[in-house]
């Protein structure tokens, strides 16, 4: 068990390294901003108020509450718990509760399992309840969905990737949750990797024109090109793409494209290994057959845009 007491908002908070086995972890500054935004939605502008809790619970009352998994899944987002308590306590002018963690991000949870115990002013615990549950439940849902794909791909050499189809304002949390579930992050945004898609090709006049324009303007970034036929994939290689996005290909076409690309590797200025990513119409029941074509990655938007939350609850001990 790990006990964390957060009393100074300016010190380096250990909660952002523990409880987490996920590297790299969430940025503490991002967590603070996300929690502040969520609390303002719930309580109104600082200091805000919870009219029910503050009317029925005395400020001096203390107690303990348990963060409990109601359904099986993979845990993520426990790193938000202490920051939420810290900010609520600051708003209310009360002592910051302590948190004892019984699990860490990336762990498998069973129904009824206590993930963390929170002790301190009951007002703080109840005011913080919905915000910490919203964030942790969302992250754990994404991690749970990702873990199912990771299990299906085990032993194939392929890995599951996320996409930019994330909840606005929560991308860092959701991509962190993908890592907690055993997946891999693709690009974080439009700024770090170039992805040449059909509209870019139309605008630039050709695949080569689009690749060369990116290379000239942003020479520091990797360039991925989308292809939905074998011919397009080879054209993208000739144009100098660093890696390929193979979109909506039936499995036989995908396998043929992988073979064609691998045959070209290491010659004609093609890298020794070109990373290949399958995407589009991917489902869990065909994940393994897609992976066995030899692609390096399967990118699945549903990890973040369609994952249901993991049911978590905060139970105040009697």
Automatic annotation (TrEMBL):
Pathway: Cofactor biosynthesis; NAD(+) biosynthesis; nicotinate D-ribonucleotide from quinolinate: step 1/1. Residues 142-315 form the Quinolinate phosphoribosyl transferase C-terminal domain. It catalyses: nicotinate beta-D-ribonucleotide + CO2 + diphosphate = quinolinate + 5-phospho-alpha-D-ribose 1-diphosphate + 2 H(+). CDD domains: QPRTase. Its EC number is 2.4.2.19. Residues 50-140 form the Quinolinate phosphoribosyl transferase N-terminal domain. It holds the Pfam family QRPTase_N. Keywords: Glycosyltransferase, Pyridine nucleotide biosynthesis, Transferase. Involved in the catabolism of quinolinic acid (QA). Belongs to the NadC/ModD family. PANTHER family: NICOTINATE-NUCLEOTIDE PYROPHOSPHORYLASE [CARBOXYLATING]. This is nicotinate-nucleotide diphosphorylase (carboxylating).
């Amino acid at each position: 068990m790990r006990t964390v007491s957060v009393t100074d908002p300016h010190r380096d908070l250990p909660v952002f390294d523990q409880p987490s086995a996920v590297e790299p972890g969430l940025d503490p500054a991002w967590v603070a901003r996300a929690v502040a935004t969520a609390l303002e939605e719930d309580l109104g502008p600082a200091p805000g108020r919870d009219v029910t809790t503050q009317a029925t619970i005395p400020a001096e009352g203390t107690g303990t509450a348990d963060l409990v998994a109601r359904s099986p899944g993979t845990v993520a987002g426990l790193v938000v718990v202490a920051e939420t308590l810290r900010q609520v306590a600051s708003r209310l002018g009360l002592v910051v509760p302590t948190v004892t963690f019984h699990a860490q991000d990336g762990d498998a949870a069973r129904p009824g399992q206590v993930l963390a115990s929170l002790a301190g002013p009951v007002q703080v615990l109840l005011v913080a309840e919905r915000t910490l549950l919203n964030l942790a439940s969302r992250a754990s849902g994404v991690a749970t969905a990702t873990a199912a794909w990771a299990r299906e791909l085990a032993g194939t050499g392929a890995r599951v990737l996320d996409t930019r189809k994330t909840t606005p304002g929560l991308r860092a949390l959701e991509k962190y949750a993908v890592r907690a579930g055993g997946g891999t992050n693709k690009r974080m945004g439009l700024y770090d990797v170039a992805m040449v898609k059909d509209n870019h090709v139309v605008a630039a006049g050709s695949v080569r024109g689009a690749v060369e324009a990116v290379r000239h303007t942003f020479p520091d970034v990797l360039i991925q090109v989308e292809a939905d036929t074998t011919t397009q994939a080879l054209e993208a290689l000739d144009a100098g793409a660093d890696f390929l996005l193979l979109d909506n290909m039936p499995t036989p076409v995908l396998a043929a494209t992988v073979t064609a690309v691998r045959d070209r590797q290491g010659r004609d200025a093609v890298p020794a290994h070109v990373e290949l990513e399958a995407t589009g119409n991917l489902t869990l029941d065909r994940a393994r057959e897609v992976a066995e074509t030899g692609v390096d990655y399967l990118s699945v938007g549903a990890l973040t845009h369609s994952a249901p939350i993991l049911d978590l609850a905060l139970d105040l001990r009697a």
